[in-house]
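call fold(seq) -> C-alpha cells
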Amino acid sequence: DDGDKEDTKAGGEEPKPKTTTKTTGSKEPAEPKADGKGLYMAKCKSCHGDDGKGDTTIGKKVDIPSLAGTKLSKSKITEVVEKGVDGTKMKGYKDKLSKDEIDAVSAYVKKL
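ret:
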C-alpha cells in the first residue's frame, strides 16, 4: 500500500469539488478572492489587534472601538476600509488595496 487515499466516498460516490463562485444576482462573491486574514494581519492588527478588539498599545492610545462581533454591515465595513474615518488616524485603503483585497478584509472583519 502506497498510502494514497481513495478518490471516492463510502458508497462509491465521487466527492464534490469545492468551488468559490459568484452567484448570479448576488452583490458579493461566496468567498473573497484575496486572503482577508493575511491582509488584516499585515495592515490592521497593529492598531486593531489580532482579534479586532483594539486593545493594542496604539488602539488604547487612540480609543479604537472593538471590531469583534461588530454590528456594522459588510458594506459599511467596506466603506470604512476604503475611505477611512474622518477625524481619526484611520486612513482609507482605496488607493492602497484592490477591490478584491478590500472585500476580503471586510469579510474577515465581519467574521471577527
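The two ends are 43 Å apart (CA to CA).
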